[in-house]
Amino acid sequence: MDLEPAMRRALELSAAVLGTTSPNPPVGAVALDTDGVVVGEGATQPPGGPHAEVMALRQAGERARTVVVTLEPCDHTGRTGPCSEALLAAGVQRVVVGCAEPTAAAAGCVARLRAAGVEVVSGVLEDEVARGPLEGWLHRQRTGRPFVTWKYAATLDGRVAAADRSSRWITGEAARADVHRLRGESDAVVVGVGTVLADDPQLNVRPHPGHQPLRVVVDSAGRTPAGARVLDDAGPTLVATTNPRYDDPRALLLPAAPDGRVDLGALLEALAERDVVGVLLEGGPTLAGAFVAAGLVDRVVGYVAPALLGDGPAALAGTGVTTIGDAVRLRLDDVARVGDDVRLTLRPGPRPRSDRRE
Fold it and tell me: Which residue ranges form the domains of the chain, and what is each CATH number?
């Protein structure tokens, strides 16, 4: 039986709930009958709700014989019971797993199922699954910090605004809609106070998906105006500041880095404590440069418009790179046309030679 189509369907199901399951992983599952026909599908529900395997088994009823799941089912009791028990109770004969469970607390399902006589097939489309909707969650388990995606939109010559600082709109409607998709897949959206003062963005997801990410303003001095749209009731907000006199219930007081600005590592640690798994960085060139310089960007999504400006701020500033040998090299993972614009998806490559330890 070719199991890859079912795993790809499970990936689609997990993608549909990305951004709604944290701190749990966005898992997809497909149940097959004895002939390999799909009889049930499911994805992880918001925290406290059933996991993907349970959802698929409920739909399949007594017909489930094989369950294909993107992540190894859990074998512990948290807000819900162990998925391993649900699989055994349903009489499943085979479980097909994309990625192994990385946490010690939840691992052990494969061994338990095999001990009970259930066939387990592991590693089906493992690389594809690990780079799919589970990527941010797996990163969070490995590093303890959220997965950061830096998103920017620029002209072909790399400008994010014109010389007069006007920037609406560099990209077209389709690209802007795609950004709302990225926001909806994220637990938090981060910008600097400069962006708030210049553009007064609301930073919510439109149309409303039923899930709004946490909006975070990095504002060392506490300059966010009381009437800023990012402080409205369209979604939750935090203002990360080093100023103890910034008087707002949404203030998040953090230590300062050596340059006096908010310590970005401490910011990500604070967000992790709030169950944030995926962060979308939408700040301007200075904040983006600070994240890049600190090595805290895990993915870059760039929207490039077929337009030229010649002058105006560049997409990135303040990385500390002064020579080509120290350039931050990226690996191009995907290129897609989005309306009249081009979307580039990249990830950091090897560190510059001057940073390596021989």
Answer: 4-136 (3.40.140.10), 145-355 (3.40.430.10)
